[in-house]
Amino acid sequence: MIERYQTPEMKALWTEARKYEAWARVEQYALEAWEELGVVPRGVAAKLAEGLTRRPIDEAFATQVEALEEQTRHDIVAFTRVLSAWVDDAEVAQWLHFGLTSTDVVDTAQNTLLVEALTLIEAELKRVQEALKRLAVRYKHTPAVGRTHGVHAEPTSFGLRFLSFYAALLRDAERLKRARKTIGIAMLSGSVGNYAHLEPAVEAHVARKLGLEVESVSTQVIPRDRHAELMSALAILGADLERIAVELRHLQRTEVLEAAEPFSYRQTGSSSMPHKKNPVALENISGLARLLRSNLQAELENVALWHERDISHSSVERVILPDSTTLAHYMLRRLGRVLEGLVVYEANIARNLALTRGLVYSQRVLGLLVESGMDRTAAYEVVQRNALKSWEEGRDFRELLEADPQCSLKGEALASAFDPGYFLRHVDAIYARFGL
After folding, report:
1. pLDDT per residue over 17-45, tens digit each?
2. Beta partners for 279?
3. Are 340 and 363 within one domain?
4. Domain endpoint, select from 98, 127, 143
5. 324: domain range?
6. Based on the domain organization, do 344 and 366 belong to the same domain?
7. From the candidates 197, 270, 312, 372, which is the catalytic residue?
8. What would the pLDDT profile of 63-105 be if each residue is shown by its tens digit?
9. How far is 30 from 34, CA to CA, in rounded Å?
10. Do strands 259-260 and 343-344 pair parallel, antiparallel, or not at all (unpaired)?
11. Does residue 177 contact residue 126 with C-beta atoms inside 8 Å?
């Protein structure tokens, strides 16, 4: 991921050095298991661990692997040779990578990093959820105009839209939880997945040490439907973040201006127009959501591999797995800052609710006319005729109805139809579903 969209935590997680640390940990735990089985002499795994404590894997190690890979054209071969020299112990060099094939190490280690990435994402998601919850509660009883097709529809609660976003992110949290379980898998089953040169006990030991589950049946790779599920969860998360961003972008339009993302001191909105305050953070989130969706498509293409394994997925995942987890983390963090500093213009919310001179209460008028005994078709004609007249002539809808002899509602009976509180009367019941 380019540095512009990295977060410090994800940048540190997806370094080459961290990857090789994870590989080395798999190798160490495999040696421990072989020792328990009496195949590898006691103490070899400890020597590897001690060597790495004495000389931790760093960027210099990664540089050596990269240089050697230029010759070997194989990253694991380069890694094991550099690791043997790095630890500088004959027994470690003899037994390192015993019985393993490359993907045993790569896939298992990669999944530990993905689980760690999910931990970071879930923490940031919680922050966004809390910000949405605060906004939902604060504006729970604030009447605002609801819009369908971009057109004013009926009054609703301004806070209810934030509660809807909150509910969506709760579902995202559940998807990420399932994805964590799906991707939290270890596999050490050998060259074609049949344990010919390994014992299942080795795999079980490594999985237990890493806090992972064992792949039920593998080939030479962990099946990529697991990774596709993870990427799907991230893509849907991105789509939900974009949903929030699009709504807030609309609310920041000059003609609407019910809410706006924070604009900091010395921030500039345009190189040419000094007055501009643009929803740049929200637009950024919309754009990055497209990358998450496109990366899901790439991972879906990785599910179908040749026979027991090919490496057509490898080059793709070197890009999309770090990038997608980093993007999700970045998007959540940026949206969290927007929500925590969101500017809400309550006077404009009230202004917009009244903008159509009462037309948003048309359904309530229709309902009351029907309740009063009027035929629905006739009632609809009365309401629509006056509504269209209000549109065309810019006149007050309620006044037109008062003057229409065919409208049986007059005075206080008609006025009751224009109470926004009626439209919010069940809001408390909706919030109660979330314990709010």
Report:
1. 999 999 999 999 999 999 999 999 999 99
2. none
3. no
4. 98
5. 101-349
6. no
7. 270
8. 999 999 999 999 999 999 999 999 999 999 999 999 999 999 9
9. 6
10. antiparallel
11. no
